Hints:
Layout: H1 6-22, E1 26-27, H2 28-35, H3 39-51, E2 55-60, E3 72-77, H4 79-88, H5 95-115, H6 118-128, H7 134-151, H8 153-158, H9 161-166, H10 178-186, H11 194-212, H12 216-233
Antiparallel strand pairs: 1-3, 2-3
Helix pairs in contact: 2-3, 5-7, 5-12, 6-7, 7-10, 7-11, 7-12, 10-11
Amino acid sequence: xxxxxxxxxxxxxxxxxxxxxxxxxxxxxxxxxxxxxxxxxxxxxxxxxxxxxxxxxxxxxxxxxxxxxxxxxxxxxxxxxxxxxxxxxxxxxxxxxxxxxxxxxxxxxxxxxxxxxxxxxxxxxxxxxxxxxxxxxxxxxxxxxxxxxxxxxxxxxxxxxxxxxxxxxxxxxxxxxxxxxxxxxxxxxxxxxxxxxxxxxxxxxxxxxxxxxxxxxxxxxxxxxxxxxxxxxxx
Length: 235
């Protein structure tokens, strides 16, 4: 199957969310409101996704068969839709696993406010190369970059790295993709030890690759997690 564009992924992801919530086929006007586009745009995108067998159109008759009006076209995602988005995300974004990982890391960060973050950072760096789960990999990579910048706060501030970091997830800003560049930038700072530098350089491409395949919804979740990390750490 031809690769979905980011815009197509966003529409399909939002359609899945609406369908899972209601259990009923979705009218294109409802999707248009959710995505923030016009009705015609939403309808045309759904027809395009239908051509790719990711969406199925159905026609609902008026509740009163004898009354005026005509059938309304609605859409439901096909079984292929969920599998396609899971594959693009590098595997299923399992809700239970995500919550467990997020809670564990945030709790470790709160504890570290007293004892320091160096032990946690070293643990994260040691696990990154062997981590297979995209959920755990992304959360631990994000946390490791933030903790590294926190240890070098004065240098990072002078080089403008913290400004970029604080804008993660904000509309119109560079966003999560900036983190791979930040990790590479850290490797050039003299005070970063060789082990940390080599890990970030080795992981930058992997991070960017997995991130680029996330759905819009999962990118939003990761951005929210990043902001929570920043708030606790105080970067």
